[in-house]
């Protein structure tokens, strides 16, 4: 297991290119199962989760080839229907194959994902939505056993609460269901929208893309997909938070500014100077950050996936910040680790109260999940002395070569094999 050794404090300065979005590429990879033939996905980031998903598609009989950021998924001989526990437990997004397998093969056997580091993460909406399309679903020995012997038929379903994963899963299934499906209160995260667009280009008949109501006129088959992955708004936000926390100035290129409105608003409220161009953003930190009040909400609200990184920044703000996570009220595993670096954070239900301190002090800390690891690295960059972040395999799931890119911006960070 690798760890990062960071010498702080440092001020990050320079330009970094944003990669393709992890949360957008995984559903696109699953969607390849809806068609026979070779789907081509471009701007694919080289991430551990992408390789895990490739393994899953190969287990299902697909042939995958990832080279130079282009992924080819050939489903000509993909007859498998099982996503085993060993893969699903390392990557919850494996559940994305459920809808496509049901729609394209008539059955699926997918391990139940189980909880995660910050609490239970139910999949009831995935299952209920698919049942509304005529799927028969049972749970057996930790597996979701789903079948639609006569094929899926159109239905009507409302997602409550709004769910990115369930919207994507049910949408993919509805693309091949017989008749017109109406999906209400759909997630409108850019990762869902890009999936819907890719499906439409492959022959799916979907109306209302980008809104909360999707109407899907099922078609018998789709053509293979050909689509480029959108820039990762969470990776972009993480670098923006890094600029803020280290008193630096970072220009991000290859990003989609419109997807970052909520993050930009928070950074501005913290006193950062944020300049946007067509596909670039420059964030320059003030002398000292101002405290903020942040509440996570479904898109276009502030993303829960940025809560930990912004919290890291608020630890050094001149005053008291409030961070409330309405999506995952228990997503605060990073709090105890930030405290080890000298942060003053208290928890009150789903709200973290962050009393800004003058300086952080380096210490050994443990990464507990993907975004928490990012927050700890950022805090380590700003802390005085040596910070060791253990269990960095979490970060490799969602950030491509983060230590090299931070080093290029002036960070003193190295990866050490344990
Ligand atoms: C996706 C993202 C994750 C992000 C999350 C919220 C991927 C691979 N992961 O996860 O990074 O943090 O969106 O933006 O894209 N819920 C239910 N029942 C369900 C499904 C969800 O009650 O069947 C609840 C969840 O507990 C949560 C809320 O709905 O409170 C939103 O979760 P959801 O959008 O489904 O998250 P994921 O798709 O799992």
Describe the structure.
The chain has 14 helices and 24 strands. With 418 residues, the protein is an alpha/beta fold. It has two domains: 205 residues, Enolpyruvate transferase domain (UDP-n-acetylglucosamine1-carboxyvinyl-transferase, Chain, Alpha-beta prism), CATH 3.65.10.10; 207 residues, Alpha-beta prism (UDP-n-acetylglucosamine1-carboxyvinyl-transferase, Chain). The structure holds uridine-diphosphate-N-acetylglucosamine (UD1). The site of uridine-diphosphate-N-acetylglucosamine has 21 residues, from helix 1, helix 5 and helix 6.
Question: In terms of topology, how is this protein built?
Answer:
Elements: E1 2-8, E2 13-17, H1 22-31, E3 38-42, H2 48-59, E4 63-67, E5 70-74, E6 82-83, H3 85-88, H4 98-105, E7 107-111, H5 124-132, E8 136-140, E9 143-147, E10 156-158, H6 164-175, E11 180-184, H7 190-201, E12 205-207, E13 214-217, E14 226-228, H8 233-245, E15 249-253, H9 261-269, E16 273-276, E17 280-284, E18 293-296, H10 307-314, E19 320-325, H11 333-340, E20 344-348, E21 351-355, E22 364-366, H12 370-382, E23 385-390, H13 393-396, H14 402-408, E24 412-417
Parallel strand pairs: 2-15, 3-14, 6-7, 10-11, 18-19, 22-23
Antiparallel strand pairs: 1-23, 1-24, 3-5, 4-5, 7-9, 8-9, 11-13, 12-13, 15-17, 16-17, 19-21, 20-21
Helix pairs in contact: 1-2, 1-7, 4-6, 5-6, 6-7, 8-10, 8-12, 10-12, 11-12
């Amino acid at each position: 297991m690798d760890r990062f050794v960071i010498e702080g404090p440092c001020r990050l300065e320079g330009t970094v290119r944003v990669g393709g979005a992890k949360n957008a590429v995984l559903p696109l990879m699953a969607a390849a199962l809806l068609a026979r033939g070779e789907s081509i996905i471009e701007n694919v980031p080289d991430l551990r989760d992408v390789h895990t998903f490739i393994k899953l598609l190969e287990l299902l009989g697909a042939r995958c080839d990832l080279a130079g950021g282009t992924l080819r998924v050939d489903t000509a001989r993909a007859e498998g229907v099982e996503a085993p526990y060993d893969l699903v437990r390392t990557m919850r997004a494996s559940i994305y194959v459920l809808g496509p397998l049901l729609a394209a093969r008539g059955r699926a056997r997918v391990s139940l994902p189980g909880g995660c580091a910050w609490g239970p993460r139910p999949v009831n909406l995935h299952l209920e939505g698919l049942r509304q399309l005529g799927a028969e679903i049972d749970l057996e020995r930790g597996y979701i056993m789903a079948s639609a012997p006569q094929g899926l038929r159109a239905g009507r379903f409302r997602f409550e609460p709004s769910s990115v994963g369930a919207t994507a899963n049910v949408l993919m299934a509805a693309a091949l269901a017989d008749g017109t499906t109406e999906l209400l209160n759909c997630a409108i995260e850019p990762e869902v929208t890009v999936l819907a667009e890719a499906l439409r280009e492959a022959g799916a008949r979907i109306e209302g893309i980008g809104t909360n109501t999707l109407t899907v006129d099922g078609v018998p088959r789709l053509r293979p997909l050909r689509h480029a992955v959108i820039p990762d708004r969470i990776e972009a936000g993480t670098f923006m938070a890094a600029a803020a926390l280290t008193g630096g100035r970072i220009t991000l290129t290859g990003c989609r500014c419109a997807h970052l409105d909520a993050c930009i608003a928070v950074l501005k409220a913290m006193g950062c100077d944020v300049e946007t161009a067509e596909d670039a953003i420059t964030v320059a930190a003030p002398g000292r950050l101002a405290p903020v009040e942040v509440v996570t909400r479904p898109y276009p609200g502030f993303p829960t996936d940025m809560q930990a990184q912004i919290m890291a920044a608020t630890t050094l703000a001149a005053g008291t910040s409030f961070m409330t996570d309405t999506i995952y009220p228990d997503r605060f595993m990073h709090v105890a680790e930030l405290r080890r670096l000298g942060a003053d954070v208290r928890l009150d239900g789903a709200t973290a109260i962050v009393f800004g301190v003058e300086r952080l002090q380096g210490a050994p800390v443990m990464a507990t999940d993907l975004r928490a690891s990012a927050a700890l690295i950022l805090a380590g960059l700003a802390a005085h002395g040596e910070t060791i972040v253990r269990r960095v395999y979490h970060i490799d799931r969602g950030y491509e070569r983060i230590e090299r890119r931070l080093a290029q911006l002036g960070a003193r960070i190295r990866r050490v094999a344990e």
